[in-house]
Amino acid sequence: MGPFKGRDIIDINDFSKEELLFILKLAKKFDPQYVRRKRSNYLLLRGKIAGLLFFEQSTRTEQSFRSAAQRVGMGIIGFNDPESTSIHKGESFSDTIRIMDSYADCLIIRHPESGAARQAADVAEIPVINAGDGPNQHPTQTLLDLYTILKEAAKLENITIALMGDLKYGRTVHALSIALSHFKVKQIFISHPSLKMPEEFIKILKERRVEYEEFDNLPARLKADFLYQTRVQKERFNNLKEYKRVKDQFILGKDFIKYLDKGLKLMHPLPRVNEIDPVLDAHPNAVYFKQARNGLYVREALLALILGRIK
Ligand code: CP
Questions:
Q1: Which of 29, 50, 142, 226 has the fewest CB atoms within 10 Å, i.e. is most exposed?
Q2: What would the pLDDT profile of 83-105 be if each residue is shown by its tens digit?
Q3: CATH number of 12-137+295-306: 3.40.50.1370, 3.90.1300.10, 2.30.110.10, 6.10.140.1670?
Protein backbone atom coordinates (compact mmCIF):
# COMPACT_ATOMS: atom_id res chain seq x y z
CA MET A 1 0.00 0.00 0.00
CA GLY A 2 1.45 3.39 -1.05
CA PRO A 3 1.75 6.33 1.39
CA PHE A 4 -1.25 8.66 1.44
CA LYS A 5 0.54 11.79 2.66
CA GLY A 6 0.80 14.30 -0.19
CA ARG A 7 -1.10 12.07 -2.57
CA ASP A 8 -3.47 13.37 -5.26
CA ILE A 9 -6.94 11.80 -5.35
CA ILE A 10 -7.75 11.98 -9.05
CA ASP A 11 -8.91 8.63 -10.38
CA ILE A 12 -10.36 5.60 -8.63
CA ASN A 13 -8.09 3.44 -10.80
CA ASP A 14 -5.13 4.80 -8.82
CA PHE A 15 -6.26 2.79 -5.76
CA SER A 16 -5.66 -0.87 -5.03
CA LYS A 17 -8.29 -2.98 -3.30
CA GLU A 18 -6.20 -2.83 -0.12
CA GLU A 19 -6.10 0.97 -0.26
CA LEU A 20 -9.85 1.24 -0.87
CA LEU A 21 -10.53 -0.95 2.15
CA PHE A 22 -8.10 1.07 4.26
CA ILE A 23 -9.93 4.33 3.46
CA LEU A 24 -13.33 2.75 4.19
CA LYS A 25 -12.08 1.44 7.51
CA LEU A 26 -10.72 4.85 8.44
CA ALA A 27 -14.00 6.57 7.46
CA LYS A 28 -15.70 4.55 10.22
CA LYS A 29 -13.61 6.46 12.77
CA PHE A 30 -15.38 9.65 11.71
CA ASP A 31 -18.85 8.10 11.59
CA PRO A 32 -20.94 8.55 14.76
CA GLN A 33 -22.61 5.19 14.05
CA TYR A 34 -19.32 3.45 14.86
CA VAL A 35 -17.63 5.87 17.26
CA ARG A 36 -18.78 4.99 20.76
CA ARG A 37 -17.53 8.06 22.54
CA LYS A 38 -18.67 11.43 21.24
CA ARG A 39 -15.40 13.13 20.41
CA SER A 40 -14.32 16.10 18.38
CA ASN A 41 -11.74 15.88 15.58
CA TYR A 42 -11.36 19.63 15.63
CA LEU A 43 -7.66 19.55 16.51
CA LEU A 44 -6.75 17.01 13.83
CA LEU A 45 -6.02 19.46 11.01
CA ARG A 46 -6.09 22.75 12.88
CA GLY A 47 -3.99 25.33 11.05
CA LYS A 48 -4.39 23.68 7.65
CA ILE A 49 -6.34 25.29 4.82
CA ALA A 50 -8.47 23.64 2.14
CA GLY A 51 -8.77 25.47 -1.18
CA LEU A 52 -12.11 24.73 -2.86
CA LEU A 53 -12.14 25.49 -6.58
CA PHE A 54 -15.59 24.79 -7.97
CA PHE A 55 -15.72 25.61 -11.67
CA GLU A 56 -19.02 23.71 -11.92
CA GLN A 57 -22.14 23.67 -9.74
CA SER A 58 -22.40 21.35 -6.76
CA THR A 59 -24.41 20.99 -3.58
CA ARG A 60 -23.27 17.76 -1.88
CA THR A 61 -19.63 17.64 -2.87
CA GLU A 62 -18.85 21.28 -2.15
CA GLN A 63 -20.86 21.55 1.05
CA SER A 64 -19.76 18.19 2.45
CA PHE A 65 -16.11 19.05 1.79
CA ARG A 66 -16.70 22.40 3.52
CA SER A 67 -18.30 20.61 6.44
CA ALA A 68 -15.71 17.80 6.55
CA ALA A 69 -12.80 20.27 6.45
CA GLN A 70 -14.29 22.31 9.30
CA ARG A 71 -15.07 19.21 11.35
CA VAL A 72 -11.36 18.36 11.31
CA GLY A 73 -10.42 21.94 12.16
CA MET A 74 -9.37 23.28 8.75
CA GLY A 75 -9.90 26.76 7.39
CA ILE A 76 -11.41 27.16 3.93
CA ILE A 77 -10.67 29.43 0.97
CA GLY A 78 -11.83 29.26 -2.63
CA PHE A 79 -14.71 29.96 -4.98
CA ASN A 80 -17.72 28.37 -6.60
CA ASP A 81 -18.26 30.98 -9.28
CA PRO A 82 -15.17 31.32 -11.49
CA GLU A 83 -16.70 34.46 -12.98
CA SER A 84 -16.13 36.15 -9.62
CA THR A 85 -12.37 35.53 -9.93
CA SER A 86 -9.66 36.90 -12.20
CA ILE A 87 -10.47 34.12 -14.67
CA HIS A 88 -13.12 36.63 -15.75
CA LYS A 89 -10.24 38.96 -16.73
CA GLY A 90 -8.55 36.25 -18.77
CA GLU A 91 -6.28 34.57 -16.19
CA SER A 92 -5.44 31.02 -17.25
CA PHE A 93 -6.49 27.83 -15.46
CA SER A 94 -2.90 26.93 -14.66
CA ASP A 95 -2.09 30.39 -13.23
CA THR A 96 -5.21 30.15 -11.05
CA ILE A 97 -4.04 26.77 -9.75
CA ARG A 98 -0.51 28.09 -9.09
CA ILE A 99 -1.89 30.97 -7.05
CA MET A 100 -4.26 28.79 -5.01
CA ASP A 101 -1.40 26.32 -4.52
CA SER A 102 0.48 28.97 -2.60
CA TYR A 103 -2.45 29.87 -0.34
CA ALA A 104 -3.75 26.42 0.71
CA ASP A 105 -2.55 23.01 1.96
CA CYS A 106 -4.72 20.98 -0.41
CA LEU A 107 -6.96 21.78 -3.36
CA ILE A 108 -10.40 20.33 -4.04
CA ILE A 109 -11.43 20.93 -7.62
CA ARG A 110 -14.60 20.38 -9.63
CA HIS A 111 -14.50 21.21 -13.33
CA PRO A 112 -16.74 20.50 -16.34
CA GLU A 113 -13.85 19.15 -18.43
CA SER A 114 -12.40 15.64 -18.22
CA GLY A 115 -8.77 15.74 -17.17
CA ALA A 116 -8.93 19.15 -15.46
CA ALA A 117 -8.16 17.71 -12.01
CA ARG A 118 -5.13 15.82 -13.37
CA GLN A 119 -3.99 19.04 -15.06
CA ALA A 120 -4.34 20.90 -11.74
CA ALA A 121 -2.38 18.17 -9.94
CA ASP A 122 0.43 18.53 -12.50
CA VAL A 123 0.69 22.24 -11.71
CA ALA A 124 0.12 22.18 -7.92
CA GLU A 125 2.70 21.04 -5.40
CA ILE A 126 0.08 20.39 -2.71
CA PRO A 127 -2.32 17.42 -2.94
CA VAL A 128 -5.29 17.81 -5.27
CA ILE A 129 -8.63 16.05 -4.85
CA ASN A 130 -10.81 15.57 -7.91
CA ALA A 131 -14.35 16.58 -6.91
CA GLY A 132 -15.69 15.63 -10.35
CA ASP A 133 -14.18 16.34 -13.78
CA GLY A 134 -16.84 16.36 -16.49
CA PRO A 135 -18.10 12.88 -17.41
CA ASN A 136 -14.79 11.35 -16.34
CA GLN A 137 -14.33 10.66 -12.59
CA HIS A 138 -15.60 11.59 -9.15
CA PRO A 139 -13.46 9.41 -6.87
CA THR A 140 -14.73 10.69 -3.53
CA GLN A 141 -18.28 9.91 -4.66
CA THR A 142 -17.11 6.39 -5.48
CA LEU A 143 -15.58 6.04 -2.04
CA LEU A 144 -18.75 7.19 -0.32
CA ASP A 145 -20.78 4.85 -2.53
CA LEU A 146 -18.55 1.92 -1.51
CA TYR A 147 -18.78 3.01 2.11
CA THR A 148 -22.58 3.09 1.88
CA ILE A 149 -22.73 -0.37 0.31
CA LEU A 150 -20.39 -1.72 2.98
CA LYS A 151 -22.41 -0.08 5.76
CA GLU A 152 -25.79 -1.24 4.42
CA ALA A 153 -24.79 -4.79 3.42
CA ALA A 154 -22.09 -5.32 6.07
CA LYS A 155 -19.91 -6.76 3.28
CA LEU A 156 -18.49 -5.93 -0.12
CA GLU A 157 -18.42 -9.46 -1.49
CA ASN A 158 -21.07 -11.82 -2.84
CA ILE A 159 -23.59 -9.14 -3.60
CA THR A 160 -25.37 -7.95 -6.75
CA ILE A 161 -25.66 -4.30 -7.71
CA ALA A 162 -27.80 -2.94 -10.52
CA LEU A 163 -26.71 0.38 -12.03
CA MET A 164 -29.51 2.14 -13.90
CA GLY A 165 -30.18 5.26 -15.96
CA ASP A 166 -27.47 7.24 -17.70
CA LEU A 167 -24.60 4.78 -17.86
CA LYS A 168 -23.02 6.60 -20.80
CA TYR A 169 -22.39 10.02 -19.26
CA GLY A 170 -22.67 9.21 -15.55
CA ARG A 171 -19.18 9.48 -14.06
CA THR A 172 -20.38 7.98 -10.78
CA VAL A 173 -21.41 4.68 -12.39
CA HIS A 174 -18.19 4.42 -14.41
CA ALA A 175 -15.97 4.76 -11.38
CA LEU A 176 -18.22 2.66 -9.12
CA SER A 177 -18.23 -0.19 -11.64
CA ILE A 178 -14.41 -0.15 -11.75
CA ALA A 179 -14.10 0.02 -7.97
CA LEU A 180 -16.57 -2.84 -7.51
CA SER A 181 -14.60 -4.96 -9.96
CA HIS A 182 -12.04 -5.47 -7.15
CA PHE A 183 -14.70 -7.35 -5.20
CA LYS A 184 -16.88 -10.37 -5.88
CA VAL A 185 -19.86 -8.30 -6.93
CA LYS A 186 -22.20 -9.06 -9.81
CA GLN A 187 -23.06 -5.95 -11.82
CA ILE A 188 -26.32 -5.44 -13.71
CA PHE A 189 -26.54 -2.52 -16.16
CA ILE A 190 -29.98 -1.14 -17.04
CA SER A 191 -30.23 1.69 -19.55
CA HIS A 192 -31.68 2.92 -22.80
CA PRO A 193 -29.58 1.40 -25.65
CA SER A 194 -28.17 4.88 -26.41
CA LEU A 195 -27.01 5.33 -22.79
CA LYS A 196 -25.24 2.00 -22.29
CA MET A 197 -22.15 1.51 -20.19
CA PRO A 198 -19.27 2.51 -22.52
CA GLU A 199 -17.25 -0.32 -24.05
CA GLU A 200 -14.01 0.78 -22.32
CA PHE A 201 -15.57 -0.07 -18.93
CA ILE A 202 -17.11 -3.33 -20.16
CA LYS A 203 -13.66 -4.30 -21.44
CA ILE A 204 -12.18 -3.86 -17.96
CA LEU A 205 -14.93 -6.03 -16.46
CA LYS A 206 -14.23 -8.74 -19.03
CA GLU A 207 -10.49 -8.61 -18.32
CA ARG A 208 -11.17 -8.94 -14.58
CA ARG A 209 -13.74 -11.70 -15.16
CA VAL A 210 -16.49 -9.77 -13.42
CA GLU A 211 -19.97 -11.24 -13.79
CA TYR A 212 -22.29 -8.72 -15.43
CA GLU A 213 -25.57 -8.47 -17.36
CA GLU A 214 -27.05 -5.72 -19.54
CA PHE A 215 -30.75 -4.86 -19.93
CA ASP A 216 -32.58 -2.08 -21.76
CA ASN A 217 -35.54 -2.30 -19.37
CA LEU A 218 -35.96 -2.86 -15.65
CA PRO A 219 -36.30 -6.66 -15.36
CA ALA A 220 -39.64 -7.66 -13.84
CA ARG A 221 -37.81 -9.90 -11.39
CA LEU A 222 -34.76 -7.88 -10.53
CA LYS A 223 -32.48 -10.02 -8.41
CA ALA A 224 -30.17 -7.54 -6.74
CA ASP A 225 -29.17 -6.30 -3.31
CA PHE A 226 -28.83 -2.67 -4.46
CA LEU A 227 -30.23 -0.56 -7.25
CA TYR A 228 -28.08 2.49 -8.01
CA GLN A 229 -30.38 4.88 -9.85
CA THR A 230 -28.91 7.86 -11.76
CA ARG A 231 -30.06 11.08 -13.37
CA VAL A 232 -29.88 11.45 -17.14
CA GLN A 233 -27.13 14.05 -17.47
CA LYS A 234 -28.82 16.75 -19.52
CA GLU A 235 -25.73 18.97 -19.43
CA ARG A 236 -23.63 16.36 -21.31
CA PHE A 237 -26.01 16.08 -24.31
CA ASN A 238 -25.26 18.04 -27.50
CA ASN A 239 -28.77 17.41 -28.78
CA LEU A 240 -31.66 18.43 -26.51
CA LYS A 241 -34.13 16.42 -28.62
CA GLU A 242 -32.13 13.28 -27.92
CA TYR A 243 -32.13 14.09 -24.17
CA LYS A 244 -35.91 14.51 -24.18
CA ARG A 245 -36.29 11.18 -25.99
CA VAL A 246 -34.49 9.20 -23.28
CA LYS A 247 -34.85 11.18 -20.06
CA ASP A 248 -37.98 9.59 -18.63
CA GLN A 249 -37.45 5.90 -19.33
CA PHE A 250 -36.57 4.88 -15.78
CA ILE A 251 -38.71 6.77 -13.30
CA LEU A 252 -39.20 4.94 -10.02
CA GLY A 253 -42.66 5.63 -8.65
CA LYS A 254 -44.85 4.39 -5.83
CA ASP A 255 -45.09 0.88 -7.31
CA PHE A 256 -41.34 0.46 -6.74
CA ILE A 257 -42.05 0.11 -3.01
CA LYS A 258 -42.62 -3.62 -3.60
CA TYR A 259 -38.92 -4.01 -4.46
CA LEU A 260 -37.89 -2.03 -1.36
CA ASP A 261 -40.23 -4.12 0.78
CA LYS A 262 -38.42 -7.23 -0.47
CA GLY A 263 -35.11 -5.85 0.79
CA LEU A 264 -33.62 -4.10 -2.27
CA LYS A 265 -31.70 -0.98 -1.19
CA LEU A 266 -32.10 2.06 -3.41
CA MET A 267 -29.09 4.34 -3.89
CA HIS A 268 -28.64 7.51 -5.97
CA PRO A 269 -25.65 9.86 -6.02
CA LEU A 270 -28.11 12.81 -6.20
CA PRO A 271 -29.12 15.35 -7.35
CA ARG A 272 -32.30 13.72 -8.64
CA VAL A 273 -34.67 15.38 -11.03
CA ASN A 274 -37.71 13.11 -11.39
CA GLU A 275 -36.16 9.64 -11.52
CA ILE A 276 -37.15 8.76 -7.92
CA ASP A 277 -40.57 9.78 -6.67
CA PRO A 278 -40.18 11.43 -3.21
CA VAL A 279 -42.94 9.07 -2.03
CA LEU A 280 -40.15 6.44 -1.73
CA ASP A 281 -37.95 8.63 0.49
CA ALA A 282 -39.39 7.50 3.82
CA HIS A 283 -38.78 3.80 3.13
CA PRO A 284 -35.90 2.46 5.27
CA ASN A 285 -34.36 0.85 2.18
CA ALA A 286 -34.23 4.15 0.28
CA VAL A 287 -30.72 5.04 1.42
CA TYR A 288 -29.73 7.95 -0.85
CA PHE A 289 -29.86 10.64 1.84
CA LYS A 290 -27.80 8.45 4.19
CA GLN A 291 -25.44 7.91 1.23
CA ALA A 292 -24.95 11.69 0.86
CA ARG A 293 -24.27 12.01 4.59
CA ASN A 294 -21.66 9.24 4.41
CA GLY A 295 -19.66 11.59 2.17
CA LEU A 296 -18.74 13.56 5.26
CA TYR A 297 -16.94 10.66 6.95
CA VAL A 298 -15.08 9.53 3.83
CA ARG A 299 -13.97 13.09 3.07
CA GLU A 300 -12.82 13.73 6.66
CA ALA A 301 -10.75 10.54 6.44
CA LEU A 302 -9.24 11.51 3.09
CA LEU A 303 -8.25 14.99 4.26
CA ALA A 304 -6.54 13.52 7.34
CA LEU A 305 -4.71 10.98 5.15
CA ILE A 306 -3.42 13.24 2.38
CA LEU A 307 -2.32 15.86 4.90
CA GLY A 308 -0.40 13.22 6.84
CA ARG A 309 -2.25 13.45 10.16
CA ILE A 310 -3.27 9.79 10.00
CA LYS A 311 -1.05 7.10 8.50
N1 CP B 1 -23.35 13.67 -5.95
C2 CP B 1 -22.84 14.87 -6.27
O3 CP B 1 -21.69 14.98 -6.75
O4 CP B 1 -23.65 15.93 -6.03
P5 CP B 1 -23.30 17.44 -6.30
O6 CP B 1 -23.19 17.62 -7.80
O7 CP B 1 -24.42 18.24 -5.70
O8 CP B 1 -21.97 17.73 -5.65
A1: 29
A2: 999 999 999 999 999 999 999 99
A3: 3.40.50.1370
